[in-house]
Amino acid sequence: MPRDFNDFEVAARESAGAFMDGTFWGFIRHAGISAEQAGQFWDRMSALVAEFDALPRSGETTYGFAVGIYPTDHPTLPAEA
Fold first, then answer.
1. In the chain, what is the greatest distance between 2 CA atoms, to the nearest angstrom?
2. Which of 14, 73, 76, 81 has its CA 20 to 30 A from that of 30?
3. Is the CB of residue 65 less than 8 Å from the CB of residue 52?
4. Alpha carbons 10 and 8: distance in angstroms, whole number
5. What is the DSSP string of the chain?
């Protein structure tokens, strides 16, 4: 896909007001997983995006929905206890 913009930079700008107003819902997590697992997880996120796109339009507010998975420079995480 073309790299026309960083979706997370756009989402950060768009969500700043919601964060300040206390109406922002978000998570960030890190996991040491294989590239294959990351690809499988991305497939599931893509399905969720398609579900969001297909929701019937209603209400007065337009909501943003951002998802992503990316490699980091974090050190290897310990195994679950």
1. 45
2. 14
3. yes
4. 5
5. ---S--HHHHHHHHHHHHHHHT------------HHHHHHHHHHHHHHHHHHHTSPP-SS-PPP---------PPPPPPP-
Distance CA 58, CA 35 (A): 38
CA distances from 79 to 26, 31, 41, 76 (A): 24, 10, 19, 9
In the chain the first and final C-alpha atoms are separated, in Å, by 38
- What are 56's two structure tokens? 């019937």
